[in-house]
Amino acid sequence: MDFFSPEYGLLALFTLSFLASTFLPLGSEWLLVALLLKGYDPVPSVAVATAGNTLGALTTYAIGIYGGDILIIRVLKLDNEARKRAERFYTRYGSWSLFFSWLPFIGDPLCLVGGILRINFWRFFLLVGGGKTLRYLVVTWIVLKVGGGA
């Protein structure tokens, strides 16, 4: 399978972007760069990478929602009062941090905590999707300006 072929390039980008936004230690920017340098259209490339990465983050968010109680009680061992304090703090200040969910190492846990604390879906979606879109746009802009892509 040629990941750079027209048949597989965007599918590979979507898949890698999705997986990179879970707890798997992967990155998707390299494939976006490679596809752009190969002449792929930047608009669908950014859209596909953003969609895959955002859906991966939504999967982590759902794990937080549906597996949150198990994580809180068995793994984090938070009592009810500590959980309520954390929820108040994250709701007041922390949900804005979801915009930075694209950052390595901290992005996936931010999405998980967003689910555990049941941050409003649309707030989560807009902050996470906005941050991820901006990241892919910046990568694309750099490639097109510096790398001489499409």
Explain this structure.
With 150 residues, this protein is mostly helical. Helix content is 71%, strand content 0%. The protein has six helices and no strands. The relative contact order is 0.16.
Q: Tell me the total number of β-strands.
A: 0
**Count of DSSP H/I helices:** 6
Overall, the morphology is: elongated
Distance between the termini: 23 Å
> From N to C, what is the helix and strand string?
HHHHHH
Proportion of β residues? under 5%
| Largest sheet descriptor | none
Number of spatially distinct domains: 1
C-alpha Rg (nearest Å): 17 Å
Low-pLDDT regions: none
Instruction: Name the structural class.
Output: mainly alpha
Fraction of residues in helices? Answer: over 70%
User: What would the average pLDDT be, to the nearest integer?
Assistant: 85
Map the helices and strands.
Layout: H1 9-20, H2 29-37, H3 42-76, H4 80-92, H5 107-116, H6 121-147
Helix pairs in contact: 1-2, 1-3, 2-6, 3-5, 3-6
Give a concise summary:
With 150 residues, the chain is mainly alpha-helical.
List descriptors:
about 150 residues, mainly alpha
